[in-house]
Amino acid sequence: MIFSSLNFLFFFIALVGALWLLPKRAHSWVLLLFSYGFYAVWDIRFVLLLMFVSLVGYSCALVIERQHQQNHQPKTTWLWLGIVSMLMVLAYFKYANFFIDNASALLGINAEHLNIVLPVGLSFFTFQVISYLVDVWRGDIRACTSKKEFFLYVAFFPQLVAGPIVRAKDFLPQLQQHVGVNWDYIYLGAQVFALGFIQKVFIADRLAMFCDPVFSQPALYGAMTLWLGLLAYAVQIFCDFSGYSHMAIGIALILGFKLPENFRMPYLATSIADFWRRWHISLSSWLRDYLYIPLGGSRVAPTMIYVNLMITMLLGGLWHGASWNFVLWGAMHGVALCAHRVWKQMGGELPHLLGWGLTFLFVLLTWVPFRCADFGQSMVYFSGLLSVDGAGDGITWMMPQVMGLLLLVMVAHLVMAFKSHRIGDWHVALPVLEKDKILHTVVWFWLVMALLVWSPINSSPFIYFQF
Amino acid sequence: MRWKIAALLLFSVLCWELMIRLFVLSPAQEIFEPRLGYVHAPHANILRTYEGYARFKLDEFGLNNDKAPIPLPAKRVFVVGDSFVEAYQVMREENVVHRLGDAWQDSWLFNAGSSGAAPDQSWTAYDMLKSSVRSTHVLLCVNASDLYELLSAREKRDAQGELTALTRPVDKPGYFTGIKLWLYGHSALVTHLKWKYEHDIRTWLLGSDERKEARKKHELTGARLQKAIERWRFVLAMFQQQNVKLTVLMMPELEYLPHKTVRQKVRQGRSVLMDEARAAGTPVLDSNPILAADFERTGMPSIGFSNTHYGKGHINAYGHQVLAHWLDSQRAVIVR
Question: What is the pLDDT of residues A375-394, one digit of tens each?
């Protein structure tokens, strides 16, 4: 049930109706019930897994909290028990077959794959529980004593399957002071949702119609088409994921909750470090706070800083999926971050425009292993881009709609870049309408018509669902 | 205020109607025809931009032709088939029938292609138009899936069990269909939304028809195969009884591969239709090797469009040109 489907519309109307009619004290139960219902639609078997993950996080945190009260500094046993449980769940569902493949290749045996279905959103909700446990252990937050509230924190459906990765300290207090459903939030939430919907349906899904065939058979196309495909994919993945995040933020706002923003115009970054401050912020800040800093961060010997950076980015790459392509993607970013650090320490400065150009080109090239099905296909794509050994001599396909959309997105970026000092902030990016009923009605009508007329027939699943 | 909002919304709808008419498509202007169901109205304006680009006016039969020449030439070729012949994806002067008409000055080529038409419906179209077109030759264009499509026709048999007719169930225009038809005939917006969402909404309400689609991909066997062959033979026989010279043209089915290579799809329907036509004494022209060889030589795909997907969908303007050039070389077979 994706946010841009009719099924979701009916589901959401039922939920808002229930919240509207029932007293505030019942809201958490209603949200929990609907969140589990939302997850059950994907695969009812994994509701038990969601419960298990929540129960482990809840119980371990309570024990850690008790140790806090008794000794001031709790032992790490329960923290590790919780973290290892989450990692075991991840390792089994997400990486078991990857390990089998690699072990088979190393040992020269032919081992069979396990019949495992990857539960949707697994990487997101396990990371939320890990961050919660670490925060409780560090004493940054108190353990949640209400099962209902903690289970809702893990399962809250707008961010359950593809983030943003929400910290408990940001979410749990909102449950205690839940504002309920009110018109101001509905008004703002609907606009943020609409922005995400446009990004997803009008831009990302249209670009997917071009990117999917190009990336599935890169050897078939000419170099120009491959470059256009790469550019289109860069915009597609941004609009798909940023669109999902906006839709999630909008839905949560309508329900009376604030979720953190996940993107700040990443393609305007002027360095690779800047890019990671703008792209998938909830993951990059998670990796920084719960991996890079615990490894020692920048307070260790210079060599170790680079090792920590590489470990963080390699694991960040692997988080996206069990494939060497994602490891390669993470490694490319890790190397770039190290190079950027060296350059900075040498006092290097680049003009903004050159910095932006190099960063954008690098990020663009890293999308090749990210999107291609395997390592071999990535190499075919790279060869085609550079027209190496007769590659890139295939069909030249320059889809006019793709070029039009890319131009539109470029203009939008430029407008944002020069118009606002808070680049990429959706509060600024979205022209919040005055509460003029006539203008409001007409604008919404035109928006709905534009989506009905110009959106592709079938909406593709969000890219980040697979992670 | 309510009146203001209502007026503005009405104005907005009119704006959308105008924009779609100008940039996307014209109203379908479909009419009900008792034997064929809904067909395009005579003289309807066609504008299509979602696969290729085409804008033209239909003839008095609601088909993709210029005005008939006066007097009619001695050789009149009735070209019939599905949307590949209808060619609503390219401008009229770019389609294969029009190109052949230009090349064969002493002949008149009449395009009777109609979207989704199976061979039995091609026969029905011929039967309905034969007195108007008075053709001397027929070029029946088919593709592999036509063998399966033949199975969805209704049949009539005589007392001896011989097949005497193939018909199609058509919707009877009731009260609501009348309203629907009026809307389709007058509103480009409604027509566009219908084409875009009708299938999805139907699937959403009634469930997917994947099983039906999957059946088409399976090979026919036993009684079903025999029934399809019998019906194909029947269609061929009906044409052959008409004192016209029939030629069967197999439309292309290609899969483009890297490094300017191509795979010619060989589905069961293709070989059965070709073998049976040959066995019935009908010349068969296969466009697959021609378009495949052209791609291997030039690297230019004949199927698909820059605004949709190369390798999928209909024949593009270049493909029509290649096909016309080759069919011109086969003139002695078609206009024998």
Answer: 899 999 999 998 876 666 78
Specify the pTM.
Answer: 0.86
Going by DSSP bridges, is the β-strand pair B30-33/B37-40 parallel, antiparallel, or unpaired?
antiparallel
The predicted complex's ipTM stands at 0.80
| Token pair for B334 | 């078609």
Query: For this structure, is A68 an active site residue?
Result: no
Contact residues on chain B for A443, CB-CB shorter than 8 A: none
A301 exposure class (CB count in 10 Å sphere: 0-12, 13-18, 19+)? exposed
Measure the CA–CA gap between B71 and A103, rounded to whole angstroms.
80
Euclidean distance between CA atoms A315 and A284, whole angstroms: 11
Closest-CA distance, B101 to chain A, in angstroms, reads: 30
Contact at CB, A445 and B197, closer than 8 angstroms: no
Distance of CA B87 to the CA centre of its chain: 7
Please answer whether residues B109 and B323 qualify as being in contact, where contact means their C-beta atoms are separated by less than 8 angstroms. no
State whether A442 and B258 contact (CB < 8 Å). Answer: no
Nearest CA in chain B to A214: B309
Q: Which residue of B has its CA nearest to A441?
A: B5
**Which distant-in-sequence residues (6+ apart) come within 8 Å of A237 by Cβ?**
A204, A367, A370, A371, A463
Helix (H, G, I), strand (E, B) or coil at B161: coil
In this complex, which of A398, A442, A453 lies closest to B306 when CB atoms are compared? A398
Q: Which of A398, A445, A457 sits opposite B12 (nearest CB)?
A: A445
